[in-house]
Design a protein that fits this description.
Layout: E1 6-10, E2 32-37, H1 41-45, H2 50-60, H3 65-68, H4 81-90, E3 98-103, E4 106-115, E5 120-128, E6 135-138, E7 141-142, E8 148-149, E9 151-152, E10 154-158, E11 163-169, E12 177-184, E13 191-199, E14 224-227
Antiparallel strand pairs: 1-2, 3-4, 4-5, 5-6, 5-9, 7-8, 10-11, 11-12, 12-13, 13-14
Length: 236
């Protein structure tokens, strides 16, 4: 299904210097999704939106077939990342795509994936407009068993420091689930798994609710540390 809408991504004026012809001459520090336009001529008419055009072209170039099955209805009907982000907006999802600033002209683009009673997953992309044409690439996250995946149950991030926390609750009280912490390389944005813990028994012991701190993690002998290999379980 072809989506007629066009995503317009704007930058704060102070972040996009312009020359006499009105064309942007520097990549942006901030990207916000303001509105959707149904007329692509709007992207051509305003010369200062060179990076808006570049962003739309980059997202249009990335197919989402690899994520559609994982992300349930979130990516349904979209052929590429641009259409996926557009559909989220048009369907008025409570979660929208977010461009997290990494450095001038480079962003950690978080796109909602699946949604459940306790957990919300996301897929992250490395969006780079430091040089045009802009580029976008999905980021794979390593798993303790040596595999990797695109979607993670992200709870918190500190992009400036390159930290991401994953927490997937097995049930509401938080006495079982999976916790992981990642560091992102400053230059490549490639994630490194720092630690991971899991618990499968719903026994009411050592419940965990993430409180927003990047350092907060499950405690107690009932949690098994699955990465690094051979590490001792976390104690109180």
């Amino acid at each position: 299904m072809k989506i007629a809408a066009v995503l317009v991504v704007t930058a704060l004026a102070s972040n996009a210097p312009v020359h006499a012809a009105g064309e942007a001459t520097a990549p942006r520090r901030t990207i916000e999704i303001r509105e959707f336009q149904c007329n692509e001529l709007a992207l051509v008419r305003y010369g200062e939106l060179a990076f808006v055009r570049a962003c739309a072209k980059a997202l249009n170039s990335l197919p989402v077939a690899d994520y559609a099955d994982v992300c349930n209805d979130m990516a349904s009907g979209a052929a590429n990342l641009y259409q996926w982000v557009t559909l989220l907006w048009k369907r008025n999802w409570s979660r929208q795509a977010v461009f997290h600033p990494w450095q001038r002209g480079r962003f950690l683009l978080e796109v909602p994936c699946s949604s459940g009673a306790y957990n919300l997953s996301s897929i992250f992309f490395d969006y780079d407009e430091r040089k045009l044409p802009a580029t976008v690439a999905a980021i794979r996250f390593p798993h303790p068993d040596g595999s990797s995946r695109f979607d993670i149950y992200n709870r918190g991030r500190g992009p400036q420091r390159g930290h991401l926390v994953e927490w997937a609750k097995a049930r509401g009280m938080g006495d079982a689930g999976y916790y992981a912490r990642y560091n992102l390389d400053k230059e490549t944005l490639r994630p490194t798994l720092v630690e991971a813990m899991e618990k499968t028994a719903w026994d009411g012991k050592d419940p965990f609710q993430w409180d927003g701190r990047l350092s907060h993690k499950p405690r107690g002998m009932t949690w098994q540390r699955v990465y690094p290999p051979g590490a001792s379980p976390s104690r109180r």
